Amino acid sequence: MGLCFSAGIQSESALHCCRNYMDKSSSKASSAIVPLPAQITRDEILESPNLKIFCFRELKEATGDFSQDNELRTGEFGCFFKGWVDEHTLKAVRPETGMAIAVKVVCEKSCQGQQEWLAKIKYLGQLRHPNLVKLIGFCLEDDHWLLVYEFMLNGNLQNHLFRFGNHSQPLSWNLYMKIALGAAKGLAYLHNEADVTCRDFKASNILLDSNYNAKLCDFGLAKNGPTNGKNFAGFLGTAGYIAPEYISTGHVTAKSNVYNFGVVLLEILSGRQSISIIKPSEGQDFVEWARNLASAGKFSHFMNNLDVLGQNSSDSFLKVAKLAFQCVSKEPNSRPTMKDVVEVLQELQDFSENVGKQENFKHYLLSYKKWSEKLQKILFNKFCSGKAAMFSESHLQCMF
Hints:
Strand 2 and strand 3 form a beta hairpin. The chain is α+β, with helices and mostly antiparallel strands. A six-stranded mixed beta sheet has the order 1-5-6-4-3-2, sandwiched between helices. A two-stranded antiparallel sheet has the order 7-10. A two-stranded antiparallel sheet has the order 8-9. About 40% of the residues lie in helices and about 10% in strands. The chain is globular. The N terminus is likely disordered.
């Protein structure tokens, strides 16, 4: 079985591939459709009422000839470019006008292959959920393989956690919990409604819209169960996130994704990247490192992200830490389901919102008390000076 780990070398390969692609894109695009593999028909995979079939010329225009200025990020199997299309017709428009899109150029030499790419179109085209990035359409011309997604304004969780990129910034604890809950809901939907698991769930694949709502994207879909006696997709994963049973068996399960999610929670809690603490010679990885610190009662060494905690977040932090360690349990059956995870995180968010409302109410009462005292003082002074009749609305306005 070929193992396809994504950890740096592959990203550099994808970047090189995209650089070559940008150079080749300057040549005239052909309109010929590449032949599909024999076992997959065009009607079966590509025709979908939810997806638009773009021609390469349209996407080339929308992205400014795949300009490096419009490059968003490099993934494991290609890179993303920002483009603009008309919101209604989806035709290419001038930059900074219309609707922003993210165009993924799929590297033709990637280890995922054409079969997985076509399968991704089929399944992503059918999936609709608030916490999944919407696939708008695709392009399949000659050696041009592209996917068109909705554009996510605030990048991905990894960039904000570890300060990658020029526009990334640290977020508040409440925002991190909102993102975690959204990502959990997306995974729960994939497991329970779509019967799908993810082979490469990680922080960089949790994208954020303008309101920091989490949406999952580019995470290596795998249909649950065998297809024609064979696995639906090959092995795929990122060092630091992979569940131990996935490595040993090559089969991804819903509980494997729970482990992935637990690693993301540990990254949020610690402020450390999972791949930053891996010592193969000592048989230690990020999860083992965190587990050892927790069992030794050395939470102060682990809680490196305390600057994100608010006044009322310490209790929430400990509950999330407990949930995270349950998710990364060595025994898959000991891990909760994503539905369980959603319930825990939802309760924490509801509690946080109630606390916020109480704090706002207390602030309102305090402000009212100060306002009332100030009003009484003004009235008393006016009365004592014999000018109470001259008290006007302007005095009220000056108190706000």
